[in-house]
């Protein structure tokens, strides 16, 4: 059974931006309430086992909704892959969980508490283009930034912070490059450094925004191997991607998003032609390369130059 409670109704997409209104349009106040998504034909997790719950979440920018009535539950130790076209609200969902975007209605809960009060146990990895890779900081500096949420920007880091960030670099295989400038790293190395930053505060929940975009198959596999190991150690992971094969192979559940939640459940049960068409609409273009399937918008022109490899840049 597919969970298609909250279907996309061919409404125009709003583009994600940095300007946020404080109140939703009037029609949001009278929006219908739906039951929480069960996600498919499997046992519903007990509330105490939930790492993340999103309840009736509405939010947007400049008075235009980016997310409408999002409901989903993520159990501890799961990997959930969020797919959808550009502008569908994938990044907005993560920012709402982080408290970087204010909900208009509803909210998100981490380990049973409002997400805004649980920021220290959530690790976040932004998209590559959101990072200034020319800024003169080292790999170790970036990893240490992951400790700021627990200590504050104006407080000096201590030995505990340095040990924790070094352990995070060791965990992702980047400790030996600790003194290298981030601008000298390859695409795969940069992602692992960002993952180390997200891990430095020992989070319960990891939010990874397009973590494997542009990587070749080898670099993707190496990164996702690490993510799966983290899951086996008890971490919960929510990641966004255009790579349908990634979701099918590595994620226990898929969330198909296009401003509303189109479907949520095991990839093998929900990722069919109907759901993908509803998720991507007329923009859907399936591209097969290296034995993998990617969902793109039809007007996008990806070239070989956009693909980054795992090679040791700057060596």
Question: What report would you give on this structure?
Answer:
It contains 9 helices and 12 strands. The protein is an alpha/beta fold. The chain has a single domain (26-306), classed as Rossmann fold, CATH 3.40.50.300. A hairpin with a 1-residue loop joins strand 9 and strand 10 (260-265). Helix 2 (139-145) runs parallel beside helix 5 (187-199) and helix 4 packs across helix 5 (187-199). The longest helix has 16 residues, at 217-232. The N and C termini lie far apart (51 Å).
- Count the domains: 1
The H/E string reads EEEHEEEHHHHEHEHEEHHEE
Structural class: alpha/beta
Radius of gyration (CA) equals 19 Å
What's the helical proportion of residues? Answer: 25-40%
The counted number of beta strands is 12
How are the strands of the biggest sheet laid out side by side?
6-7-8-3-9-10
Q: Which shape, going by the Cα principal axes? A: globular
Question: What is the mean pLDDT?
Answer: 80
In CATH, what is the homologous superfamily?
P-loop containing nucleotide triphosphate hydrolases
Task: Tally the helices.
Answer: 9
Oligomer: single chain
Strand content: 15-25%
Distance between the termini: 51 Å
Name given to the CATH architecture: 3-Layer(aba) Sandwich
By CATH, the topology is Rossmann fold
Task: Characterize the main sheet.
Answer: 6 strands, mixed
């Amino acid at each position: 059974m597919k969970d298609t409670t909250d279907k996309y109704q061919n409404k125009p997409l709003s583009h994600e931006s940095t300007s946020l209104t404080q109140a939703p349009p009037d029609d949001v106040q009278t929006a219908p309430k739906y039951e929480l998504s069960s996600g498919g034909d499997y046992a519903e997790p007990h509330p105490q086992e939930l790492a993340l719950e999103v309840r009736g979440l509405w939010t947007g920018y400049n008075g235009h909704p980016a997310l409408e009535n999002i409901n989903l539950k993520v159990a501890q130790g799961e990997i959930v892959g969020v797919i959808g076209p550009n502008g569908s609200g994938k990044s907005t969902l993560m920012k709402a969980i982080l408290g970087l975007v204010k909900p208009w209605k509803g909210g998100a809960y981490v380990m049973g508490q409002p997400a805004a009060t649980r920021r220290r146990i959530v690790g976040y990895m932004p998209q590559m283009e959101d990072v200034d890779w020319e800024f003169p900081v080292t790999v170790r500096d970036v990893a240490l930034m992951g400790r700021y949420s627990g200590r504050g920007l104006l407080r000096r880091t201590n030995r505990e912070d340095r040990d924790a960030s070094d352990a995070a670099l060791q965990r992702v295989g980047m400790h030996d490059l600790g003194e290298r400038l981030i601008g000298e790293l390859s695409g795969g190395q940069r992602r692992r450094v960002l993952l180390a930053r997200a891990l430095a505060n020992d989070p319960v929940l990891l939010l990874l925004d397009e973590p494997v975009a542009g990587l070749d198959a080898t670099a993707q596999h190496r990164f996702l191997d690490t993510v799966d190991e983290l899951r086996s150690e008890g971490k919960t992971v929510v990641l966004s991607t255009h790579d349908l094969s990634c979701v099918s192979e590595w994620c226990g559940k898929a969330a198909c998003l296009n401003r509303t939640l189109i479907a949520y459940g095991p990839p093998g049960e929900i990722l069919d032609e109907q759901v993908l068409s509803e998720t991507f609409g007329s923009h859907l273009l399936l591209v097969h390369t290296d034995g993998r399937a990617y969902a793109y918008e039809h007007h996008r022109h990806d070239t070989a130059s956009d693909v980054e490899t795992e090679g040791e840049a700057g060596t």
